[in-house]
Amino acid sequence: MSPSDDNLPSYRLDPQVGFLLRRANQRHLALFARGIPDLTSTQFAALAKLCELGQATQNALGRATAMDAATIKGVIDRLRKRDLVDAAPDPEDQRRRTLTPTAEGRALYARLVPAAHEITAATLEPLDEDERATFLRLLEKLT
Amino acid sequence: MSPSDDNLPSYRLDPQVGFLLRRANQRHLALFARGIPDLTSTQFAALAKLCELGQATQNALGRATAMDAATIKGVIDRLRKRDLVDAAPDPEDQRRRTLTPTAEGRALYARLVPAAHEITAATLEPLDEDERATFLRLLEKLT
DNA sequence: CAAAATCCGTTTGTATACTAACAATAATCC
DNA sequence: GGATTATTGTTAGTATACAAACGGATTTTG
C-alpha cells in the first residue's frame, strides 16, 4: 500500500453517464419549452404518436411512448381537457378506451411539427453531421 | 406537386433525440433504483457532490448538481430527515445554510460508491469500449 | 366449465423538476 | 448613505414518473 492509499472512495459525479444523461435531457426540455410553449414534450409525444397511429387504447399509447399506465392517464386527461384527444369506449373490450386525436388535435400537431424538427436540430446543434449520426446510433443502443 | 404530396406532416416520434434521451434516462434510472435502493439517483448525486466538496451552501450545491433552488430544497430536506446531511446557519451570511455530510452520510456514500460504479457500467453495457468513450464525449457536448 | 392468471384503467403516495412569487439579507451604485 | 439590484432560501402550483394496490373485464389453463 502506498502512503496515499487511503479508504476515500474514488468517485466523481460530473463524468458519470447518469448525470450527463440527466443534464442533456434538461437542456433538451428547456429547448422544447421554448420552441413549443403550447404543450409539454410528453404531451406532444403522446399527441404525435396518436396522430401517427390514427388511434390507440390508452395503455397501448403509453407503451408506444414509454409512459406507464399512471403517467399516460394524466397526460391524456390534460389533452382531453383541451379537446385535443377524444376517448370512446371500445365495444369489443369493455376495459378499453379508444383514443383518437380530434380535428383540433391533428391541426395543432401539424402546425407544431416544424417547430419540433427545429427543437431536434437545436438539441443536436453542438455536434457536426457525423457526430449526430454516431450519437443517435449509440444512444439508441442505450434505450 | 406529385400526387402523393399531401399536407401530412412528416414526423416520427421514435427516432427523435428527445424521445431517445428520455428513454435512455428511464433505463438508467431503473438500473439505479435496482442497484441502490437506499437513495434516489438525485439524492445520491447531492450526497456524492457534497462529500466531494466537503461542504456547500444549499443553492450552490444545487448548481453543482444541476438542480434549481426549489428542487435541491426537497432533496436536502429528505437527506436531512435521514441524518445524512447537516445544515448549519452561516455566520457570515444570514441567508445561507451551510450543508455538511454527517458521519453517517459519508459512511453511506463510501459504502455505495462501488454500486454506483456498477450502475454506470450497467448503463453503458450495450456499448463496447470505443463506443463508450465516443458516446460520453458527444453526450458531454449536449450538456 | 371453473379457477387462475392476465390485462385495463384508476387511485394514492412519493420524488423529481420547473415557474413564479415572496421575505430577508447582501452587494452595488450613484 | 440611501435607493436599487441581486442573491438565498421558501412556498405554491403544475407536470412528469414510478410503485403499489384496486375492481372489473378478458384470457388462459387445468
TrEMBL record, chains A, B:
| Gene3D superfamilies reported for this sequence | Winged helix-like DNA-binding domain superfamily/Winged helix DNA-binding domain
**PROSITE patterns named in the record:** HTH_MARR_2
Chain ranges of the HTH marR-type domain: 14-143
Q: Which domain of life is it from?
A: Bacteria
InterPro entries found in the cross-reference section: HTH_MarR-typ, MarR/SlyA-like, WH-like_DNA-bd_sf, WH_DNA-bd_sf
What PANTHER family does this protein map onto? TRANSCRIPTIONAL REGULATOR, TRANSCRIPTIONAL REGULATOR, MARR FAMILY
Q: What is this protein called?
A: MarR family transcriptional regulator
Source organism: Pseudodonghicola flavimaris
**Taxonomic lineage:** Bacteria, Pseudomonadati, Pseudomonadota, Alphaproteobacteria, Rhodobacterales
